[in-house]
Amino acid sequence: MTWGIISTWQMSLAGVTKAAEQLRDGRPSGDAVQTAIEDVESNPAFNTVGYGGLPNAEGAVEMDAAFMNGDTLSIGAVTAIHDIAHPIAVARNLSHEQLNNFLAGSGADVYAQRHGFTSKNMLTPEMQAFWGKQVRKNATRHDVLNTHDTVSAISLDYRGRLHTGTSTTGIFMKAKGRVGDAPLPGAGFYCDNQVAGVVTTGLGEDLMKGMLPFKINELIRSGATPQAACDQAVYPFVDELYHRSGHIGAVSVVALDKEGNWGVATNTEFTFVVATDQLEPTVFKAERGSHNTTTIDEARL
């Protein structure tokens, strides 16, 4: 059995490198997913996830995260959680609960505090100043729609276990309590040991309309490769949504199947990171190609 991990955006490279070392040493895929995502959550240089993330319209950093176990299909998720260093850790803990697996706002805050998760003021002085500047200039729709890069990861270990995770602060200047696709099962992520894991990044309001992770999982179950499944699900969806509404935001997906094969599709220029037992952690760039296919090249760092 092989191992592998795939994660959205170049910002996950350092985390994926740490996670790959764990997988190489035989650690569970759930640990690898958490490690990869926590690295991004901790780094204030990445302003769409965790510490240093962009605040909502009221100046607060509200975070969403989710975790799924592909063996048991257990899910844990939080949305609009505040001042917790690692929302992904809280989501993973919730996946072990029999009930109350998805908590929001103050309920998520209380759960995290009661279970001893590390508290941290996630609003940095830099982001507070940036928020104030945007308020004074009345931030435009363009400012808001170009700030929503979720870190999402899928990992496969030597024992054939698949896990997925997501973490984000969502779009800049979002309404208090706004929820995107990242913590929503079937929309922002899905995972099944018997098939594959699939995760998304992009504009949640549009991604929620497609339920792409679940659709891609079912295409793979029916015999499609991860790459073919991503292409077949994403490109007709983005074209149809644009036809119906006249606009569409960024939509990107990555998939990893139970054999360690991966795929990706996107309607924007999109970077992602892959590491396997045959490939050192590598950043790739994907774009939409011709005939509903995806063009993938190694990124120049």
Tell me about this structure:
The chain has a single domain, classed as 4-Layer Sandwich (Glutamine Phosphoribosylpyrophosphate, subunit 1, domain 1), CATH 3.60.20.30. The protein has nine helices and 13 strands. The protein has helices at 13-24, 29-42, 87-94, 105-114, 125-136, 141-145, 204-207, 212-221, 226-245; strands at residues 4-8, 63-69, 75-81, 102-104, 151-156, 162-168, 189-191, 196-202, 251-257, 262-266, 270-276, 279-288, 294-298. β2 (63-69) and β3 (75-81) form a beta hairpin. α1 packs antiparallel against α2. This is Isoaspartyl peptidase/L-asparaginase. InterPro entries: Ntn_hydrolases_N, Peptidase_T2.
Provide the fold topology.
Elements: E1 4-8, H1 13-24, H2 29-42, E2 63-69, E3 75-81, H3 87-94, E4 102-104, H4 105-114, H5 125-136, H6 141-145, E5 151-156, E6 162-168, E7 189-191, E8 196-202, H7 204-207, H8 212-221, H9 226-245, E9 251-257, E10 262-266, E11 270-276, E12 279-288, E13 294-298
Parallel strand pairs: 3-4
Antiparallel strand pairs: 1-5, 1-11, 2-3, 2-6, 5-6, 7-8, 8-9, 9-10, 11-12, 12-13
Helix pairs in contact: 1-2, 2-3, 8-9
